[in-house]
Fold these 4 entries.
Entry 1:
Amino acid sequence: MTKRTHPAMIVSVLFLFFFAASATAESPRLNLPSEQTRLLDGETIIFLERDDDDVIDVSGSVYIRSVPETIWTVITDYDNFPDTMPKVKESTVIEDNGNIKIIEQTSKTGVLFFKVKFSTKMTIIETFPDTLSFNLISGDFETFNGKWVLTPHEEYGTFVTWSATVKPDFSAPGFIIDAVQKRDLRELLETIRELSESSKATVSPERETKKTVALSNPEERKNQ
């Protein structure tokens, strides 16, 4: 049977957002001082690799001026994803066993003339307040596994890394899928940053002042 071609489908899946990444897909470069400096300067960093079997490892990192606990409330607010996350039309926790949950979602997206609506079912494993992993149970992918990692940066805020190993069960030009994934992962991370920094539990003015003073000193920036 010929597999259907839906390059748009990959777009909305990236907005499922509780998807994060397998350990092998985590960005190994986040700890490098040069990239920490880029993140502290407000840049969103994205990496993507595709192997010969069309399995995609994609990861992204962003710095958020908020505490991990606040960011955690944003990325675990599953039932409200239709109101907070683009492309998600329905999101329901159908089974809740404490830190292990099963979630069903329906998303709708489109690229140019392609319009796609589809559903997924995933197992979520929460390790408060720094790791949230997921595994695909059923849906429109052969593989979709991953996790969020929240890493506090001294007292100033949090580095947030999302990564995933993905293989669609449909065919589409690789360059289209890759470009859309990079674009939509960037939008996802920046949405999380906006929601987290607008919360009442963001970094206090005193901590933000310390950060501004420290980063204005070239020697301090070099040591970040």
Entry 2:
Amino acid sequence: MGCFTFLKAMMFVFNGIIFLAGIGILGVGIWVKVDSGSVLSFLGKIENVPPEISQVLNVGYLLIAIGALLVVIGFLGCCGAVRESKCMLLLFFLIVLLVFIAEVAGAVVILAFQPLAANLLAKVGQAASDNIKSSYGKNADLTGLWNSTMDTLKCCGFNNFTDFRNSPYYNSSTSMYPPQCCGNTNNPCNQTVAESTMTAGCFPKIKSLVDGNTVVIIAVALGIAALELCAMVVSMTLYCRIKSTMA
């Protein structure tokens, strides 16, 4: 009986934290969508903020979805444990199981289709390079987006500085590249300086960042998977124990 009570308490505490976190995330998501004017006003007060930052409002939908899922899981886990409700515990188990299966399926797809992903990334890279060549320096939104990305990641173009060759910016500035491609120096960013600086492209920079933190990413993923497995085991243990007690 002591073990049963302990499992109930752990189930309640663990899912209570999930429930509160879900409410917080859900609240932030709703606030971002409902009070978007205030969010934009706040962002507008930040100096030198790029106009593309307004796209952060779209994150509200993701926050609402994640928050709602966490609230449901936390509620079912807490109430199922406290009220010893087999129905709630079973629903909790099934939802966590579905999330776990989706995560495993996603990992398998990523591993199984790595060659396809590499081919897709190559096509995306070509499209991004073509987009830079046709619109950078002419399309204000795209130019601002690339500038903010390059400033943040300290990178140049999608692949490297050659992406900007023959772009509207390049042609209108007498064969000059964006200053980010030359380390934001005060000197004109011409071919010679860009070649000597060799600032990495944004895609290689992101790939290097991910590769450098692979262990951390895998550890976090395994930790989440372990917690989900533990939650499923505990919920099913309580479910079976309640069933045997009521029999």
Entry 3:
Amino acid sequence: MHLNGVNLHSETYLLGNAVFEEIKRLRELGFTFVRMSHYPHSPAFSEACDRYGVAVLDCLAGWQQFYDTDAFKENTYQQVREMVRANRNHPSIVAWEPSLNESSYTEAWAREVNRITKAEYPEKGLAKAWTCGWRYWNVFDMGCGTPQANVNGDAATYATKPVIVSEYGDWNYGGYDSTTRVTREPAHYADAKGGDEGMLQQADNVQASYAWNREGRVLARAHPGPGRRPDPRARDR
């Protein structure tokens, strides 16, 4: 089964928190799944997804930071409890990401947040607390990651795990200078164009990445230079 999805921050340029219209628009465009990036969103967000039939991966607040101290870990454990308790009655939330996005947490910590999630969402009958993790896929029910980071290796190691390919269509098109990272303004930096030309390049990047995801493959291994698409042949090398 494929879920066609996006990462979504809680505010969109020029829309603010008009989440009902935003979720309705995503559904009309054919998207059926949203990964919260990278924190729980407002109650209105979950209500909108309930209304329009969009499945949600709810995420623990955090990004590129982990401290192996008692204070930090206890704080994250409590945040996991609060996240599940706040949103477990929303039918749109089909899975939980209690890990920290792009962070070097320990396996012991991963096992504890996974245990807490399942304790806060007791499994009964068809109800299951599906969990997803950035690292240590062996601990969680599903794996999550980006093509430039861990998806290539982890997907091969845990071949039977469901995989959420996140943030596709970006880094592989130039890294920090990705040609996807443009807006309608005419210029951004030396090697990337904005305006209509930039928007068309951005759309082409995302479309190509999406097609490769649908084929059951991850993106090209090597990063192309800014303004260049990855060589599709790299998928088979």
Entry 4:
Amino acid sequence: MSPYPLLLFLVLGASAFVVKEQLPDERFLGSTDASFGQFPAAAYIVSPERQICGATVLNENHVLTLAQCVLNGTHNTINPRLVRVHAGVLNLGLVSASRQTRLGDVIYVHPNFKAHSLENDIAVIRVQEPFIFPSNEVEPALRRTRIVANGHSCLLAGWGAIVAGPVQDVNALQRYMALTINDRDMCSSLRREMPVFENMICAGNMDNAPNGPAPCQGSLGSGLYCDGDLTGLLSFGINCGSLGNPPTFTQIRFYNQWIEQQFLRNDRPPPGFSPLDVA
């Protein structure tokens, strides 16, 4: 069985305002509808392996996502040309003039990604055609470079259902929720089988009431923004409001240099490349 969290399967209609949820109990609880231009770097990717995964626009030619979002069940990189990147989207069910859709061209997965612990869970996708800037709906993210203090309030932006239950309609509108940065050691003590390493950041419900504000599987890869800067990508601890499994993010400030290096690469990893094969 794949170690990756299950992803939300969305059935999109050209004129639908809601999207039916296919997997049980997946939601984006305690969130608020986003407005146009509020999170202009937020995007999502769709592929044969991963029906939907969060992504973030980095510049005209690249988006950032999780390594687990671009690997198949045997940890091999999926064909980038089968990946669609959607940016400028507020409502998943509507095709609007603001939407910019691009096909993937090259995928660069962090060479030290570890599937068992989800360390270095990060990847860069180069798209075939550049995004159009400037745009009120699509802009590159500002990336966090400094540490975020415990107790700081940040915003997680993504898509998902807004009520609990085994089968619910997913609100197709982009939504956001406030999450508070937690002490890393305290998060690790709650979940010893999946510790929170230094290059991760833990935020959200550790002691909230069940079904409080919390992301679920449909939020995998969504961006955490602190003071407007992209600070993390949701990697695990997608807890649907349960206790003892706080949301945990790949912490962007540890990867800024690696991200910049990917912009300059001219090589194309071989088909089916696996970061687990790298010594």
